[in-house]
């Protein structure tokens, strides 16, 4: 039933519609079209415009969503600005690594999440390493 209806539209009604269209043979013929002629051409022009857009759309640059531009995705989002203060005198180890990729689950201390981040994105971030000299 549905296929018969589609076949009838394509084989009978569409050719009849296209025969009745007032398509001018030259560019100057478009100027002489009346308002009713333009209204009869409107569905065809709309479909052609839609097909043209769908054809060109895969080649158009995509806009990134604002969320894609964020660096900090989850750490202290309730604060307007994330600030961590570390007193150098309190460092117990000779080397301490601090996160700069914002992916660490132990933020601000680095848990080497930047390695996976760099592999996925092609980025090159690494930790901030503080070294304590022992005198």
TrEMBL record:
Cofactor: [2Fe-2S] cluster
Subunit structure: Homodimer.
Domain Iron-binding zinc finger CDGSH type positions: 81-120
Task performed by this protein: Regulator of autophagy that contributes to antagonize BECN1-mediated cellular autophagy at the endoplasmic reticulum. Participates in the interaction of BCL2 with BECN1 and is required for BCL2-mediated depression of endoplasmic reticulum Ca(2+) stores during autophagy.
Keyword field contains Transit peptide: no
Gene of this entry: cisd2
Any GO MF annotation of the entry: metal ion binding
Chain segments annotated as transmembrane: 38-56
Major localisation: endoplasmic reticulum
One CC-aspect GO term: endoplasmic reticulum membrane
Membrane topology type: Single-pass membrane protein
Co-factor binding details: Binds 1 [2Fe-2S] cluster.
Name of the protein this chain belongs to: CDGSH iron-sulfur domain-containing protein 2
Record-stated family: Belongs to the CISD protein family. CISD2 subfamily.
One Pfam family, short name: MitoNEET_N
Chaperone found in the keyword field: no
Keywords per UniProt: 2Fe-2S, Autophagy, Endoplasmic reticulum, Iron, Iron-sulfur, Membrane, Metal-binding, Mitochondrion, Mitochondrion outer membrane, Transmembrane, Transmembrane helix
